[in-house]
Amino acid sequence: MALLTEPSFQHGQPSRVGILLVNLGTPAAPTAAAVRRYLAQFLADPRVVEIPRLIWWPILHGIILRVRPQKSAAKYASIWTPDGSPLRYHTEQQARYLRGYLGERGIQVEVAHAMRYGDPSIADVWQQLRQQGCDRILLMPLYPQYAGSTTATAVDEVARLLLRTRNQPALRIVKHYHDDPGYIDALAAHIRQYWQQRGRAEKLVMSFHGVPKRTLLRGDPYHCECHKTARLLAERLGLSKAEYVVTFQSRFGKAEWLQPYTEPTVISLAQQGVKNIQVICPGFVSDCLETLEEIALEVKQAFLDAGGKDFAYIPCLNDNPAWLNALADICQRHLQGWDTGAPDMAALSTQRTAALELGASD
Ligand SMILES: C=CC1=C(C)c2cc3[nH]c(cc4nc(cc5[nH]c(cc1n2)c(C)c5CCC(=O)O)C(CCC(=O)O)=C4C)c(C)c3C=C
Ligand SMILES: [Fe+2]
Ligand SMILES: [Fe+2]
């Protein structure tokens, strides 16, 4: 394996810090061809589909990549915007805002975003950061809850680049932020604001993306982290156990996934006489196919068909200022000790302690 050609660092050259935001990725266009390219890369990842290659390859290439792209492309077409795929648009915006928020705090860093599957690729963006002089990089996968099938695949990709790098940058990784108070508070404030404008439903459904149940049995913390997020959010909103339900959506394949599944749950709620529900997807910080099509269209229809009257989908945090502030806080905490031109949090508290020791009042 050849080493990558690296920018040559000169003595005395300013060394910079880079933040690399990563999200899952999305097709380049809502067409069968583009969706096939995207799914071929995504579903070939052994962390995403943990079936031996000898068995999985004929299924993927012989069946799934022949049938699914057409169907998925029609779904993508229903949520596509003039700015392209919602996931790509929101991720770009988040990177732009994060740069601004950190800049306002006097933190001088490069902020870039990449997609694990599709474009802009982690490899290309990583190389750009290196060319900008970044010798310290904070990798921030945008998934609040850690899963082997999401967070770990972003780390794998960076690890593959490091394997080929002569002069490796320092690397820090945000593993997860499922219980970060800023993220929980932003979600709670976002929901409260929604309630103020449109009222409250009988039930709040917190729907997370599913994963195969066997990943939980093999030690993946994702399920527990989703439940912790839900519990903290419910506490912050003052919801009793009867007022909300945690579900898992987007099942893929025949194996059992985390339960309860979102769609059968809302159908059963309607059948029990629950007339109005609101759905929030706290595991997605950007709206995407799984929220805008699966929840806001498909699951809504299933609820109404089963006798429900009012269904509302509460959008993701997207460019919500409280969320972007929380994102900036999470990054800032992980940058501590790396000189970014801003007073360090640790340095500030040392100064404060010293001042207190000298008798200054708090
Ligand atoms: C939020 C976390 C996510 C987890 C965990 C996750 C696991 C996971 N997903 C699949 C299969 C598919 N997911 C698809 C879309 C998709 N998934 C996530 C997030 C998580 N996935 C997002 C943000 C998106 C939307 C992308 C977009 O372009 O808007 C798709 C593609 C769409 C389709 O054809 O249905 C598939 C397939 C598996 C197998 C898995 C865990 C093992
Ligand atoms: Fe997914
Ligand atoms: Fe889906």
TrEMBL record:
It is found in: Cytoplasm. Keywords: Cytoplasm, Heme biosynthesis, Iron, Lyase, Metal-binding, Porphyrin biosynthesis. GO terms for molecular function: ferrochelatase activity; metal ion binding. It is an enzyme of class 4 (lyase). Signal peptide: none annotated. Pathway: Porphyrin-containing compound metabolism; protoheme biosynthesis; protoheme from protoporphyrin-IX: step 1/1. GO terms for cellular component: cytoplasm. It catalyses: heme b + 2 H(+) = protoporphyrin IX + Fe(2+); Fe-coproporphyrin III + 2 H(+) = coproporphyrin III + Fe(2+). Fe(2+) binds at H209, E290. GO terms for biological process: heme biosynthetic process. This is Ferrochelatase. The gene is hemH.
